[in-house]
Amino acid sequence: MARFFVGQRVRILWSGGWPELSGEEGRIVAVAQDGGLTGGSEWITAPDCWGTAWAPHPSHDGGTRFAPNSSQLEPITPPHVAGSWEVIEQLLPNIREGVAA
């Protein structure tokens, strides 16, 4: 199962080409078919602060769009999506009493 997918909201952990993106949020807009400049990029990502995957200025190595590897991203879980343990904890009182949730 893939950890990331097109359309997913992500937090940018780091960027070698654009260090100012560290900590910013964005959305994966496509799979990097060309492998990026170094052949290791996986996801075309649009940082919110840019509004698009196309960079407002070239990176130090000449890059023109943000195409990070999975290791540079962290998935953002929407606040209304509870983790599996949270769901179990919410349902547990009803289960103990035999009440349908």
Word description of this protein:
The protein has 101 residues and is of the alpha+beta class. It has one domain. The protein is 14% helix and 19% strand. The protein is built from one helix and four strands. A four-stranded antiparallel sheet has the order 3-2-1-4, with no helix packed on it. The model has no long low-confidence stretch (mean pLDDT 83).
The number of helical runs is 1
Structural class: alpha+beta
Question: Stretches where pLDDT falls below 50 for ≥5 residues?
Answer: none
How does the major sheet shape up? 4 strands, antiparallel
Outline, from the CA principal axes? elongated
Secondary structure layout:
Elements: E1 9-12, E2 25-31, E3 43-47, E4 73-75, H1 84-97
Antiparallel strand pairs: 1-2, 1-4, 2-3
Supply database-style keywords.
single chain; 101 residues; alpha+beta; four-stranded antiparallel sheet; 19% strand; elongated
Brief summary:
This protein has 101 residues and is α+β, with helices and mostly antiparallel strands. The chain has one helix at 84-97, and strands at 9-12, 25-31, 43-47, 73-75.
